[in-house]
Amino acid sequence: MSIALPRARVAGRLNRGWSVVGILAAWLIGYALFHGKQTLSLAPADINGFHESLNDLNDSVGANRNSNPLFLYFFNEIKVGIDQIVVFLQNLISQPVGDRPLPYVGWLGVVALATWAAWAFGNWRVSLLTLAGLLFIGAQGLWQESMDTLALTITAVLLSLLIGIPLGIWAGLSDRFNAAVTPVLDLMQTMPTFVYLAPLTLLFLIGPAAATIATLIYAVPPVIRLTAHGIREVPTDSVEAGESLGSTRGQLLRKVLLPMAKPSIVIGINQTIMAALSMVTIAALIDAPGLGQVVVRALQTLDVGTAFNAGLSIVVLAIVLDRVTTAASVRVEKQQEAGVAPSPLRRYAVIGGGVAALVGAYLSYTYLWAAEFPDSPNVGSPIIRAATSVSDWTQLHLAGFTGGVKDGFTAGVLDPLEALLSGSPWWLVVAAITALAYVLGTWRTALLSLVLLALLIGTGVWSDAMVTLAATLVATVFVTALGLLVGVWMGRSDRADAVVRPVLDAAQTMPAFVYLVPFLALFQPSRFTAIVAAVLYAAPVCIKIIADAIRGVSPTTVEAATAAGSSPWQIITKVQVPMARRGITLAVNQGLIYVLAMVVVGGLVGAGALGYDVIAGFVQISLFGKGLAAGVAIVLLGVLLDRITRAAAQEREPGVPASLARQTRA
Amino acid sequence: MARKSLKLLAPLVAALLFTAACGGAKVGEDSDDTDSGSASGKCGTVNLAINPWVGYEANAAVVAYVAEQELGCKVVKKNILEQVAWQGFSTGVVDVIIENWGHDDLVKKYITDEKVAVDAGSTGVKGKIGWFVPPWLAKEHPDVLDWKNLNKYAAQFKTSESGSKGQLLDGDPSYVTNDAALVQNLNLNFKVVYSGSETALITAMRQAEQQKKWLLTYFYTPQWFLNEVPAVNVKLPEYKPGCDADAKKVACDYPEYDLNKIVSKKFADSGSPAYTLVKNFQWTDQDQNAVAKSIAVDKLSAEDAAKKWVEANQDEVDAWLQGT
Questions:
Q1: Do B203 and A43 touch (CB under 8 A)?
Q2: Which residues contact A529 (CB under 8 A, 6 or more apart)?
Q3: 3-state class of A620 per DSSP?
Q4: B159/A contact by beta carbon, under 8 A
């Protein structure tokens, strides 16, 4: 596709390069003339009129909650319903019930049922993984906490599916609804949770309901997007065939659209589960029971070992759930392609296994040894000790070196960029970014950028937003570099992929709170620490997507290039990377979104700016409005960068569906 | 055939396993471990907020332990941040905050205006906010302990985050800070850097002491970490009542906070013996530090730490229980 570019296109791209250089030069000149003027800066403790009116809104919600019928008959009902589901599941697997000192189903029952389900819906490999994973969690000494986390996650996921699949179907069928719901989903995924955590406890009180809903807000978008995507991707001839046979709309949906969209919907469910698990630690801040509590409490005393042990349980849960749902989606896809029913032997074995699992559940209901996870073998203590000593050693021996790296990088790269963005007058930044958007995209992109920037000024936290933007851009460059380096390596070597992928999964699901302490020790509270944390969180996604894109390049092309005598370097730079460009663009885009998701965590380790504003808004009632405004600013930055990068890539490869571009995860 | 034998074998193995498994103690049989305090009717449930710092947890652990053991209450602990806890008074899901650090804005909103909460008196512990330096620095340069000399050392306190000025590291935004105004009004050549969390502050202080680095931070007592690294307070211009009235013009030290207990109005009026216990609860910095150390350093569970302290100080506990 990139072999015969029309001449005009090449000339256009050259012009584009020069235009970008020109704009940057003009920006620098403007900075030299006007820096420090009209930067719209606002001190961390100061608020403006807009923030105050948001505070008032918050107050009025609090004042009306006991009299307003909306609360009495709507929010309270939802709260009661959700609380009941969570408590039911907790009684089932994690918490004592009445006089019974243990839950109804003990460890043996849970392990047996989960292992059986993994086999029945997936395959024997994931079934073994489930068995090993659950036994490992028990041996870590975190059985009850893990089951609490599981109970809450299951509730949030079930509700997400209940809401998400119908909405997804609607969005798949109606263009208008899809266009309306997409920005809402963007908002739900990029708005920092800290912003709405306190208001949620006002609406739904402190308890399982508020924690479940906080999780749901973040977890429901993937299943909506991927259900809609699945329905949209159904080939038109299948639909037409159904219509010509005289199917009604309902029949068409049930017999044609839903079955064909099933694989995509299952991936959506998988994504939703992962998103729900990533909320475990944050939900703990409003009393969600489970592993998050262990992490948060350990952090109070800087007990890295205990936090790591609990974080590891979350990683294990996530990997088990991820592999099982992926295996389930593969099974669904295979059955659909082959169109054959499973063999009678397998059916017989599934039933037999189910009976055995039920027996296990009964034993764990009746007998103590099967109900309460045994104290030994205990892998928790060695893990805690090992993690603590690794963390202590790093802090003691590497801090001198890493401190130097931080100082050099901050002075050489971060400070100049930040000065340019936050030290220039606002009108200069707006003009420059709008011009860049025009050159990289179209006049539509420029117009949209202008509107977004105007809204950003409206939030009243412009200067902080520019500081955060600088750090975000730097982190994204790192993420992309890592993504290309490791992603190409993984894409070219199956062995590398097998080794690196679990590490990436762990980096992605290990709660950031766990590694903040060693990072703080290595780099002090600083913007650099925040960038390192963001890169660690965002790089795995970017790497995975690039690896898959490289692997997706047709092998015949690569073979042809090899036969023609190209060196590996030539194959990478001339064949694989150019042909995987679409995937790479998507990877950069996702990396960016993930970096933005870490802005708030950055605020906890010294990055200041928007992240700090959001945290301060969560803990100081007088700063609530400013925190909300900062959250909106993060969303606006996300949309701005997303649309500009996408527009820049669009010219070369039209037709990346917007919904997919934001959601796909390898 | 393999398939056939599997068909026969599987149920057989399952049956064997099942009979083998049916041994051992049954759930709920051994009830000797269950607590005797199965709600003496009078007390009922107490919703106790647990704010995320160790000193708070020490208070909460001891009060919860006494309420459960002596009064037979059911104590429900809610792990939440301060502002959310106060909000819980108005929504009726929190009864007690057992260590409150000032929070004038919340006092005004929930005690004065909405009248959903009341002050239940001092915990006996005094809170002090201030600026601290690591012990090695206080020893080698004792004059750094007076704010007047800080400018002399500004260059040493410089970091990558503070530009050309010295760095004053601030922490968790939950706590009151006047530092930006203080730096300006005292004409200090310093920049306030917002670390954003207590974790960041403690890690920075631990590193500074380990590697003899210069560090000036916002910190507070009582704090479990000061047992590990006894950071030293820097003298600021003396606090006089009213000198912090205008937040923008503050040029004096932080006041001493009388850490107090806040309870919901509903709970105070309920006549619960637990309310009397909360009201009577008072101890010293040393007491709190002892329990905090058990939790943070010796890694005892909150309950065990409380038990240890209560058994050693039964007479103090008896004084709290008067009138219940």
A1: no
A2: A406, A519, A520, A522, A523, A602, A605, A606, A607
A3: coil
A4: yes
Spell B234-262 as b/e; 16+ CB within 10 A means b: bebeeeeeeebeeeeebebbbbebebbbb
Nearest to B26 among A367, A521, A608 (CB): A367
Tell me the per-residue pLDDT of A249-285, one tens digit each, with 9 for 90 and over: 888 888 888 888 887 888 788 888 888 988 888 888 8
Q: Which tokens is A618 given? A: 């969560």
Q: What would the mean pLDDT of A606-634 be, rounded to a whole number?
A: 88
What is the DSSP track for A383-418? HHHHHHHHHHHHHHHHHHHHHHHHHHHIIIIIHHHH
Judging contacts by C-beta atoms under 8 Å, the chain B residues touching residue A612 are: 173, 194, 196
Give the whole-angstrom CA distance, residue B31 versus residue B203: 45
- Max mean pLDDT among A8-12, A175-179, A376-380, A574-578 falls in A175-179
In this predicted structure, what is the pLDDT of residue A5? 42
| Beta carbons of A520 and B200 less than 8 Å apart | yes
A363/B21 CB distance under 8 A: yes
Longest CA span, chain A: 81
Nearest to B28 among A43, A101, A612 (CB): A101
A198 and B CB contact within 8 Å: yes
ipTM above 0.95, yes or no: no
Compute the distance between CA of residue B120 and CA of residue A200 in angstroms, rounded to an integer.
Answer: 28
A598 touches chain B (CB under 8 A): no
What pLDDT shows up at residue A351?
86
A43 backbone φψ class: left, alpha, beta (φ>0; ψ -120 to 50): beta
Q: Which residue of B has its CA nearest to A405?
A: B160
| Residue B219 near chain A (CB below 8 Å) | no
CA distance B187 to chain A (A): 17
CB contact (8 A) between residue A411 and residue B90: no
Average pLDDT over chain A, rounded to whole?
Answer: 84
Residues of A with CB below 8 A from B211's CB? 399-400
The predicted-structure confidence for A536-564, as pLDDT tens digits, reads as follows 988 988 898 888 888 878 888 888 888 88
Residue type, B223: Q
Q: Is the pLDDT of residue A50 over 90?
A: no
Put simply, whether A511 touches B (Cβ < 8 Å) is no
Residue from the list B80, B159, B299 with its beta carbon closest to the beta carbon of A524: B159
Q: Which of A103-117, A156-170, A566-580 holds the top average pLDDT?
A: A156-170
Peptide bond into A192 cis (omega under 30): no
Distance of CA A563 to the CA centre of its chain: 41
- Which of A36-50, A292-306, B84-98 has the least mean pLDDT? A36-50
Confidence of residue A136 (pLDDT cuts 50, 70, 90): very high
Q: Is B280 in CB contact (< 8 Å) with chain A?
A: no
Kindly give the pairing relationship between strand B256-264 and strand B117-133: antiparallel
Q: Which residues of chain B are under the pLDDT cut of 70?
A: 1-24, 28-41
Answer positive or negative: Cα dihedral of A77, A82, A85, A91.
negative
A410: chain B residues, CB-CB within 8 Å:
160-161
Contacting residues of A for B23, CB less than 8 Å apart: 367
Q: Check A205 against B177: CB less than 8 A apart.
A: no
For residue B8, what pLDDT is reported? 56
pLDDT above 80 (res A1)? no
Q: Do A366 and B21 touch (CB under 8 A)?
A: no
Return the top range by mean pLDDT from A374-383, A481-490, B39-48: A481-490
Instruction: For residue B194, list chain A residues with Cβ-Cβ distance below 8 A.
Output: 44, 606, 608, 612
CB contact (8 A) between residue B34 and residue A101 = yes
Q: How would you classify residue B44: left for phi > 0, otherwise alpha for psi between -120 and 50, otherwise beta?
A: left
What is residue A340's predicted lDDT score, i.e. its pLDDT? 63
